[in-house]
Inverse folding.
């Protein structure tokens, strides 16, 4: 009889283990179905399908609904000059409830020959399986775009550079005449230069420099920026927006029309010799033959020719020339270690600090508020909230920050305000120590310390109902758009897991209530059981929207602080997720942080690109409302990818 009991116990235990496996299979199957928004699809397209020999086309390789892209092998592009690329983009769309996510690589191409150019299929390796795109073709006509039509440079940053915007003395226009025996290359090198100028070549970490890319020209041209400096290693604030206007400057004793291609103030984030990359312009230049000039009555007639009057094709020579500036190396000196204050947090410039308590006395059922204002000029946009020494019985909340900055000033000037809410449940007299703030003054090369006075305050006994301000208000997330889809998904997962736990408990109780059944030992808590419990716990956390304030901002027409909110909430989410401080989250460190958590390279690259785009929008003085929804959706997608990775690795 004992042998029978033993066998029955083994069989029962195996059934229980099998049942757990089935439960987990159902859960992960449901998760996979919910996560897979569509079938993997790869495609290739070139646009436009027909161009002139001096125009450009864009080739895009698109991968839909895949988070496991391992390699993309583009087709042979030997018949083209690759002007730009590969450029990576990603996004998502929702049509009739069907969500599609995509990643794309694009190349800007200029053909080397005319006729029909066939482009083979690209190969995409996804999860160890090779997918091939469709092939495509481009028809290149043996024609050039009409002079002045700007077709060949469509989309350029400087589509209408016109040195003839104002009449100049006749001698100014001699450079546009191509005499017999002269070479176009020589004329261009003597009369056209792209230069990078900086206001200094040495600075401290956090001390701004001004970089200006200028086109010096005495020729008529239409220009397109084909290589835009990325300024890696710097926080960037652009100071001008190219508008086609120009000034007159002398270079080596000769007068030029000067166009500002890009002007930015750069705040170095690390020490060392950092090279400012070259910019590259492609210029479509027009010359007039000297024998054609003889046929004209005056130089004013020549101006009319270039300005759009009828010109015989044989009178004009059009040449496309690429110009590249020379890179400039900046020596970024480290901040000195000698006499560096313990609380120094990277502030460089010249600052002042004031602070004030909202109330010096309040009941225990209300929250206090401390407002700290840091003003001055320097790397204000990079300042983080000062760390305060709170009394032991006081519970502080996460500080909120607002800023009023003039980013057109060099260095940036204005102020940054930090609001600290706090509570104290025990009545009594308290004192918040003086707030100390240190910064490095590059003018004197020394550290300076500024501080406020101490802040005594009194907490009285609680009176009446708990005030709403005692606890920060948590607004219910509005389930709209793509966020509604994500949030409902996690609730479904939680519901499935809880339902299976309930069924398991009922089954076990039923087995115990059967008097004829041979008693068996309780099933130990297995790794699979712990994994299932962890799924429920993780899902409950992940269903919250870490971008709640950003989403609320989008619902208003005057969402001026969108990019600041998105940057702050995204960094707070990542800091919480990876157990670091928000100050440690940046484009230079995030790859290393995610690698330690075994995140996929694709997710890491998408996150780096997102942080770069947010930084670009944040430090550009022009609000781009059309990018808000796109960046918000990208951020939500990456958050879901990170959360899903947590579940997969339980």
């Amino acid at each position: 009889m004992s042998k029978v009991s033993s066998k029955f116990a083994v069989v029962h235990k195996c059934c229980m283990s099998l049942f757990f496996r089935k439960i987990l299979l159902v859960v992960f199957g449901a998760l996979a179905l919910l996560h897979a928004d569509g079938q993997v699809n790869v495609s290739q397209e070139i646009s436009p399908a027909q161009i002139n020999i001096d125009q450009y086309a864009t080739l895009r390789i698109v991968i839909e609904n895949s988070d496991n892209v391992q390699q993309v092998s583009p087709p042979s592009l030997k018949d083209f000059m690759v002007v730009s690329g590969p450029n990576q983009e990603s996004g998502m769309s929702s049509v009739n409830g069907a969500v599609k996510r995509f990643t794309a690589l694009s190349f800007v191409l200029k053909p080397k020959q005319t006729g029909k150019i066939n482009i083979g299929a690209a190969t995409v390796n996804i999860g160890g399986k090779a997918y091939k795109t469709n092939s495509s073709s481009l028809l290149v006509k043996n024609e050039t775009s009409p002079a002045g039509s700007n077709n060949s440079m469509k989309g350029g940053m400087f589509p209408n550079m016109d040195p003839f915007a104002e009449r100049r003395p006749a001698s100014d226009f001699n450079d546009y005449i191509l005499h017999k025996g002269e070479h176009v290359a020589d004329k261009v090198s003597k009369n056209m230069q792209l230069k990078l100028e900086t206001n200094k070549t040495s600075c401290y970490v956090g001390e701004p420099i001004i970089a200006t890319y200028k086109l010096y020209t005495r020729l008529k041209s239409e220009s397109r920026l084909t290589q835009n400096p990325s300024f890696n290693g710097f926080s960037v604030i652009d100071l001008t927006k190219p508008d086609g206007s120009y000034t007159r400057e002398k270079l080596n004793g000769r007068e030029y029309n000067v166009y500002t291609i890009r002007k930015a103030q750069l705040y170095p984030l690390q020490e060392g010799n950092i090279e400012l990359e070259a910019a590259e312009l492609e210029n479509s230049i027009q010359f007039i033959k000297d024998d054609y000039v003889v046929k004209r009555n005056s130089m004013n007639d020549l101006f009319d020719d270039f300005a759009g009057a009828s010109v015989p094709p044989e009178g004009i020579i059009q040449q496309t020339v690429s110009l590249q500036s020379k890179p400039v190396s900046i020596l970024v000196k480290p901040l000195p270690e000698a006499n560096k204050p313990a609380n120094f947090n990277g502030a460089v410039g010249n600052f002042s600090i004031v602070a004030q308590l909202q109330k010096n006395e309040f009941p225990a059922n209300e929250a206090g508020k401390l407002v700290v204002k840091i003003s001055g000029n320097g790397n204000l946009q990079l300042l983080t909230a000062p760390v305060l020494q709170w009394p032991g019985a006081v519970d502080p909340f996460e500080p909120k920050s607002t800023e009023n900055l003039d980013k057109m000033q060099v260095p940036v000037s204005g102020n940054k305000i930090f609001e600290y809410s706090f509570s104290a449940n025990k009545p009594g007299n308290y004192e918040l120590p003086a707030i100390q703030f240190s910064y490095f003054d590059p003018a004197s090369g020394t550290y300076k310390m500024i501080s406020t006075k101490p802040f005594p305050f009194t907490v009285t006994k609680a009176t009446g109902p708990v005030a709403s301000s005692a606890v920060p208000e948590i607004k219910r997330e509005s389930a709209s758009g793509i966020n509604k889809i994500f949030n409902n998904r996690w609730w479904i997962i939680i519901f499935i897991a809880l339902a299976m736990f309930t069924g398991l408990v009922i089954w076990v109780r039923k087995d115990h209530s059967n008097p004829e059944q041979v008693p068996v030992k309780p099933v130990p808590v297995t790794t699979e059981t712990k994994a299932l419990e962890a799924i429920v716990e993780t899902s409950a956390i992940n269903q919250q929207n870490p971008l709640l304030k950003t989403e609320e901002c989008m619902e208003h027409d005057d969402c001026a602080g969108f990019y600041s909110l998105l940057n702050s909430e995204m960094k707070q989410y990542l800091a919480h997720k990876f157990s670091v401080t928000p100050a440690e989250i940046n484009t230079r460190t995030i790859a290393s942080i995610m690698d330690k958590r075994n995140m996929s390279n694709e997710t890491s690259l998408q996150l780096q690109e997102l942080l770069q785009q947010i930084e670009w929008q944040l430090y550009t003085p022009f609000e781009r409302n059309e990018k808000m929804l796109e960046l918000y959706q990208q951020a939500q997608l990456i958050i879901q990818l990170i959360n899903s990775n947590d579940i997969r690795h339980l």
